[in-house]
Write a structure and sequence with these properties.
Order of helices and strands: HEHEHEHEHEHEHEEEEHHEEEEEEEH
Bound molecules: N-carbamoyl-L-aspartate
CATH architecture of the largest domain: 3-Layer(aba) Sandwich
CATH topology of the largest domain: Rossmann fold
Number of domains: 3
Strand content: 15-25%
Structural class: alpha/beta
Number of helices: 10
CATH class of the largest domain: Alpha Beta
Oligomer: single chain
Radius of gyration: 23 Å
Helix content: 10-25%
Number of strands: 17
Largest sheet: 6 strands, mixed
Length: 457
């Protein structure tokens, strides 16, 4: 379908598109706001009469579901949701792919929340209507990030060079993964305050440095890890925002142990004097109730912006089908430009993230073994669905019958011979698939022919 766009990751949107969403949200706020509470939308308009939004929620949700529904109703459309997997056909064993193909005949846009990483991208690959990721496992929550950034921008005017501290479960919080990519793209500096054992996942940290051009430094005084604009020294100066997140208990098999709490005592330090205290909510114990009266608390205002921001998202996605208002990746950041490799259905590398949607027994038959080929040195394979990277693997060149490890020789992904490559977790697996390592490998020659249909990057 022409101009069909999905938002499965914050990186599906260009920086220019994000600015466009903010401008539209500002417009809705100005036009429709409650006179007594300026961040609250209190009226509706008739922009999308007859349009229908359907929510497919396989995990609990309050804010995301209701603010999407409110946003669609405020735009003059209609909203409905399948919000309890026990009462939907998921309980009969129906796959997400089938549910999406069916429900896209009932609605013009789908919002999907799912416990598996990469579920949104699987849904998007089957949907003839736009799919919005309402949170997929611990992968991403891009629309939360849009309202987080919008809040920051309203509080602090600009995003460039802001110092943003992030506290809590940085490993399993999907809100944080989308948020740090966006902060990096907008030139903010990030300081990590993880709970013990809940540091940012390696892949996310790798991308911050290698794809979003942040420099990793350690603060000499505190040992804290910062991601800053290259060449910029970390100086102890004010923290513009503290983003707090709860222990994601549903994604861990053990209890939290020592978990950082943000309270009046924590905020007493001089560096937090004008900080905005943010939280995607719900909170459990990590954000003290006494802060609700503190002028620095921004979290209820933040939650309120879910409505104008989601109005702007729905409007942009539905308008894009008719008017081409959303352009594709104009600012040159990486996603979408790497070649896509699809392994045979039953052999070749598998995603190494056990929570990826490809490892769900119901969904697996609907998911291909697809990877973006990330042209770093050494090269990486990035799962098409959950974006987990594999950084150690074996490559068989079908044309020259050579087998080599990914760090054995430089690979130029732009070479046309990529379609002749097969990827394996081990040399044994490669041998079982008919590509034994002979021990006298030579550098494969690039092929002089067009990329086959296996390459869709
Ligand atoms: C978040 C989520 O679902 O990831 N909630 C939300 O959408 N505001 C945060 C959380 O559950 O901790």
């Amino acid at each position: 379908m022409r101009n069909l766009r999905h938002i499965t990751s914050i990186n599906d949107l260009s920086t220019e598109e994000i600015e466009g969403i903010f401008a539209r949200a500002d417009f809705y706020l100005q036009k429709l706001r409650d006179e007594k509470a300026p961040y609250r939308i209190a009226r509706s308009l008739n922009e999308l009469p007859g349009a229908i939004l359907a929510g497919l929620f396989y995990e609990p949700s309050t804010r995301t579901r209701l603010s999407f529904e409110s946003a669609m109703l405020r735009l003059g459309g209609k909203a409905m949701a399948s919000a309890d997997p026990r009462t939907s056909s998921a309980s009969k064993g129906e796959s997400l792919a089938d549910t999406v193909r069916v429900t896209s005949s009932y609605a013009d846009v789908l919002v999907v929340r799912h416990p598996r990483d990469g579920a949104a991208r699987l849904a998007a690959s089957y949907a003839p209507v736009p799919v919005i990721n309402g949170g997929d496992g611990s992968h991403e929550h891009p629309t939360q990030t849009l309202l987080d950034l919008f809040t920051l921008r309203r509080k602090k005017k600009a995003l460039r060079n802001l110092n943003v501290a992030i506290s809590g479960d940085l490993k399993a919080s999907r809100t944080i993964h989308s948020f740090v990519y966006a902060l990096a793209r907008f030139g903010a500096n990030i300081v990590l305050k993880p709970a013990p054992g809940m540091e940012l996942p390696d892949d996310v940290a790798w991308r911050l440095e290698n794809e979003f051009h942040r420099e990793r430094t350690s603060d000499a005084q505190t040992g804290e890890v910062w991601y800053v604009t290259p060449g910029r020294q970390t100086r102890r100066r004010s923290i513009d925002a503290v983003y707090v997140t709860r222990f994601q208990s549903e994604r861990w098999s053990n209890a939290a142990g020592a978990y950082p709490t943000v309270n009046a005592e924590f905020l007493r330090k001089k560096e937090f004097r004008t900080t905005a205290v943010m939280h995607p909510l719900p909170r459990v114990n990590e954000l003290d109730l006494s802060l609700d009266q503190d002028r620095r608390a921004a979290y209820f205002e933040q939650a309120a912006y879910g409505v104008p921001i989601r109005m702007a998202i729905i409007s942009a996605l539905l308008a894009s089908r008719a008017k081409k208002t959303m352009k594709r990746y104009p600012d040159g950041f990486p996603r979408g430009h790497e070649p896509l490799y699809e392994a045979a259905a039953t052999s070749g590398v598998m995603c190494i993230n056990s929570n990826c949607i490809v490892h769900d027994s119901v969904e697996a038959p609907y998911a291909a073994r697809k990877f973006h080929l990330v042209g770093a040195e050494p090269p990486r394979l990035r799962c098409f669905y959950c974006e987990t990277d594999i950084d150690t693997f074996w490559i068989a060149d079908a044309r020259s019958a050579t087998v080599f490890a990914n760090d054995e020789q430089p690979l130029d992904w732009s070479r046309k011979y990529v379609p002749d490559l097969r990827f394996y977790a081990t040399p044994e697996e490669s041998a079982q698939s008919g590509f034994p390592r002979r021990g006298t490998e030579r550098t494969p020659e690039p092929m002089k022919r067009r990329a086959s249909s296996r390459l869709r990057g």
